[in-house]
């Protein structure tokens, strides 16, 4: 069955759930109910009105089945990594012209800052001849597989609102995240794992907190499930000490038998649904620790990513991301914190801090693309890498003072991200910025355009994909967004 | 083929016959509006008016469209473009474009409607609720008017009401609905042994008087109020606002009438001499988010809070989606873009702003300062009145009105820092600040709120009308302890003047931070004692406080903000200036509005058709799992229609008139109805005919709320604490759940009984709420939430199976059961009775007994596992714990039915 029909069929199963239940409810024999119903039923059911179910999704044949989003929280500098601006070097140390400051709002820059040249050298790589900074030696090997978008722009110049805009389509809290939208529309491909999983590294959650993977007004089952690096990989997935799998199985059987008896008495379909959820929970108790255990990977694969046996690192999370998508998880969201290079300390300097951040991500993200590719997964897995905004071509001068290190302020007008797989062209650069990387001057891509494009690759028309809340049809892309056709194969 | 043709023709004629004979006059709301909403309004609404034709306002429908035709010409369907387009032969012209054509019946209705004059009728929710008299002799079924309305719908849908629920189910339902926790076995037995109507009634009374009643019903309101213990966004720091939560609990428990409940929360600060409680009530609108992230623009997030207050007010009291009008006129309801900003104006003049101090706050002092404050009040009461003393108390505690940098008319040698956590004016040597046209008739003192780090002396001169004007006050600024209030006497002797505050120092690079000025009224008497009193006031204004709550405080009129329309909702692009008011649609008696108090009073007046309906619907939804209007959050055109419109109006009118807004009376009347008391058993027939239970021929089965599920587990195991009120608590939570950037706040498990308090006291950090609550669909409280959508997921199963809180409850319960003398059958059956309040069925008993025996056999071999499980050598305790864990995961346990 092709992808389109498969998705259609699953959706159909989902929407005809009541009918299905009726059929099997009468002669309920074993308790293998959940497996009969399919994952859509488990991670995609709700007790509320049927009108909540998504209609007609996917709208057309999808190119991508799943997404891995690598969010660099704190916003990496495009000028040190992807957007090569030799002319900016010539202006290094000069006062920023008035024309660039007039009418602009900055987070920290005050008065007249100085221009700041790129802090790393660039060279050309691949058949495409793409310019990549010396800070990303591994990444330079895969430039022909990725599309670099240099003309991203956003509306928000503070981290939390900008991350929310990127992840939820709105700068204010309370909207569903893109992963929640996608699983709401497409469900999970694996009945033993949640459809939307989140992995965090860098020591901190992103500024937007857990709202960045929240379900907003969508039912809570669509919120991202955070995989933890210590303790339970998913909260409460382990049995209490002393409760063996054997006893757990027996007790779950008892729960389900009691519930069946309850169903006979009250005839409520939600009771059947609960029986299915408990079965699923039982399966997750095995499947989650298993998929999270990277020691199962061969040595050379772990080395390829630079993954460690345990602990939280971006490398481990990239490897986990591959394991998760391999298992059919629909949306894997990574956050790697600590890219906010203002220059107020060594750790937040471009020369030191940014360099070490690059060292943390360069090898693993490259390995992820190579690994997906060698497994034939890259074609239908969409990978996106980027921050929530860009950095100024001016050196930050917080409070009008000279900062101890080189750093850049938050910048909304232009920044770079890259995308790969899932029907995205490889070896291209899209969009252009001016000679100092301040404004996008060609093919500007707004956050909502990026979101529209991601949904498009998953077979979803972002204008038709709505959810009614507080009397209004909400979309991920609000009333904006256009699919960037030139990026697509 | 032919038969079908004739059939449809036949149907058509029957329809025409019906419409022309039985209902001579077309009913716009019943017949026309549904057709327009379904087929036309998405392109011809309030925002998108394709071809210049819109159907939200009659005037638009009648106006000329872009091509010069009129869509609707009253009395003349043949001249109406709408009719010619919906009947057009050319598919490129025929409306709706790319959609199915309208049916003949629909076309007929529209044609007739135009023929009859195309009269417009407001949407049902905007019409006055109609009084319906019900003769109690004539109920047919049930005991009160509610039953009459429900029964008529049950009949109309060919259903039958269900029998009354079994006593054990009914008593459990009543406890869960009224106080949120199930009855103890003793409490349940009391009713089961005497399930008479009188006993039921008296139980309802007892429960309504229980302090737990307020704790339970507060949750609903706290979701609407978006109450939380943190400020939101990046670092998501703590906010001390729990006194508001306690205020809500107390208001419910003392059955504060809903009109007062409304006015105190929306405009308590504008009442004459507000009490402490009335100020705390205004914290309703201080639950908005605050963004302290580095580099954020304070004004942007102040505006964001005001927007949230507008949207929340309209949603909570009117179920009207005002947020749609922020950027453009309402797409479906007759509300105009500009009218958003007349609402905005009500809320745009409060003194709070987006800073970490959360000012204005209501301060509470330690005992020493409290005595001082009492001295001040006593003296003022003596020389003047208690009212005057109360005013001074409020001034001391709140320290408003304060004139801040945004109120300064002119400044020199100053820099206003207004980003992120900062909002102050840097004042440099030789600087001045001008306050224009100040009313000095009753003012003889000013406090300068400033912070100075250095030992250098600064000198303040206050001159009148110009920099070189008469000096009417002075003060010396020294190093301060953070921000302090420094008094300066004013000797103006005039009514109004421009005040110039000039700051000089011998030290060239002298500078300090200025927050603002408090202009202070004269004390009511000027005698020897008044100097002492001034001394006490000075000290109090700089005294440490032990507790505070952010409140709403209106800025003085002379320094009020102007409200301008935000073009397309963009706060940086300003349009026309507007005055406070409500949308024309709602202003049925052309009331005049000055401020929030007028707004609050209108909401609970006879001139408001929505409040009563909206509020009774919220209570109904909480009791029945779905509202009479399913979309509790939207009573507008796109919301669901009421299933029982007459019942809704009847309840609304009773609530606001006869019952005098008593929420307890409302609940009492609902739970005394036979409708409420029905069994929740679903007959196969009812399941077919009414799967969603719209017509209430049975009681709903509803999953308990997140808070209830935890409270119940703690209650049946005897762990639940009865302690009420106070700062939020931190029950056990796994390590590593809080990893919030730029924040050292840690989750520290509360000691003793505080770890076992009811769910509503659990600390709610917006960016990282209590995990098990979120799994069970609780709100993150970022924005107003009218209804939680219940889901059913494996993650929930993992919570009640494995969350240590639930497992501890299982052990606790097992210990009690273990102590019982008797065989395992008795133990298992007692345990079931303890959690469900009723006798176990033989089938379930057998299942549990078998599990008990299997587990026991297993643990006899695996001693060490049993010991790990319960930390005891008692094998039976381990097996019983497994049983209790099962009981607390039964569908019937986490559902009320």
In quaternary terms, these chains amount to heterodimer
Instruction: Pick out the low-confidence regions of chain B.
Output: 1-22
**CATH homologous superfamily label of the largest domain in chain A:** Alkaline Phosphatase, subunit A
Architecture of the largest domain in chain A in CATH?
Answer: 3-Layer(aba) Sandwich
Structural overview:
Helix content of chain A is 34%, strand content 16%. Chain A is built from 15 helices and 17 strands. In chain A, strands 1, 4, 5, 6, 7, 8, 11, 12 and 15 form a nine-stranded mixed sheet that branches. In chain A, strands 2-3 form a two-stranded antiparallel sheet. A two-stranded antiparallel ribbon of chain A has the order 9-10. Chain A is α/β, with parallel strands linked by helices and 489 residues long. Residues 10-52 of chain A have low confidence and may be disordered. Chain A has two domains: 3-57 and 245-283, no CATH class; 66-235 and 311-487, Alkaline Phosphatase, subunit A (3-Layer(aba) Sandwich), CATH 3.40.720.10. Among the domains of chain B are: 2-121, no CATH class; 167-209, no CATH class; 257-360 and 559-603, no CATH class; 366-544, Galactose-binding domain-like (Jelly Rolls); 804-896, no CATH class. Residues 1-22 of chain B have low confidence and may be disordered. Chain B is α+β, with helices and mostly antiparallel strands. In chain B, 41% of the residues lie in helices and 11% in strands. In chain B, helix 30 (842-861) runs antiparallel to helix 32 (875-887). In chain B, the strands form four sheets. In chain B, strands 2, 3, 4, 5, 6, 7, 8, 9 and 10 form a nine-stranded antiparallel sheet that branches. Chain B has a two-stranded antiparallel ribbon with strand order 1-11. Chains A and B meet through helix 8, helix 10 and helix 11 of A and helix 26, helix 27, helix 30, helix 31 and helix 32 of B.
